[in-house]
Amino acid sequence: MPIYEYECSKCEHQEEHLVSSTHGREIFYCPNCAKNNKAVRLNKLISVSNFRLKGGGWAEDGYSNKQAKPAGA
User: Fold this and answer.
1) Could you give the CA distance from residue 26 to residue 16 in angstroms, rounded to a whole number?
2) Model pLDDT, residue 29
């Protein structure tokens, strides 16, 4: 399940939510604004993924570590 970042447009409160793909589009409300009896929806932010390939090979050059064979070999 992916983690998404959300921000309140009113008070700029940010938080993360673990979102299940089976629930579709979930709606989250700001807990800070709820204290003042206001229901303000949180907006999903576009953020950088923390996924990174490490090591040589495909992660390094896109294919493999093997050198290209000369023609006729």
Assistant:
1) 13
2) 92
